[in-house]
Amino acid sequence: MEILRCEKVSRIYGSGDNRVIALNQVDLSVEKGEFVAIVGASGSGKSTLLHILGGVDKPSEGKVIVGGTDISTLNRTEAAIFRRRKVGLVYQFYNLIPTLTVRKNILMPLLLDKRKPNQEYFDRVTGALGITDKLEALPNQLSGGQQQRAAIARSLIYRPAILLADEPTGNLDQKNSGEIIDMLKLSNRNLNQTILLITHDERIALEADRIVTIEDGRIVGDEKRGGGALLKEQQG
Predict the structure, then answer these.
(1) What is the edge-to-edge ordering of all strands in the sheet holding 20-31?
(2) Is the pLDDT of residue 150 over 60?
């Protein structure tokens, strides 16, 4: 089942001599439960695409449909609510609230909507991420890897349609980076969580089921990994 679709998405900044085409007529379809890595050089447009998919930015042209909703038509307030409920965002900077416990940080998306958490699901997520014994700690009492696990738990707590991770291992050493990618794979496999991972690290990208390559604002490659073979489809 298709969970995400981009139709002829472009993002243009500035005008005249200062005009920059960050995305150029991007078409992309993602099925529920896929683990997709989006790769490209710095300035290729991959982070711009992630921000548009997450409703943080709007396309200049085209449609972005997530879970049946065209998020490109939402106003700022509607986009913020949709993002909180339907899109999990994980960045290399953890963005945890320093004065709140790990538990409250994880539950924040639900608390903002005055919703009660599903305790069984909460326990399942925090247990899978290995932070059950850190729930009453403050973020500054955790290691970088543990803080990133808490950020991932927060992104999963609303059971989002898609999880968008922008260089989630950028501030971590190799050991913690590997553990975070393992956590994302576990979420994908055990929770059937759809994940789009932005990375410049080829080793990390190879952990995904599919690799989409962006160059100069266009998708130039789409590689599906399955059955031990790498199936390549080169686009325009």
Answers:
(1) 20-31, 2-13, 61-66, 69-70
(2) yes
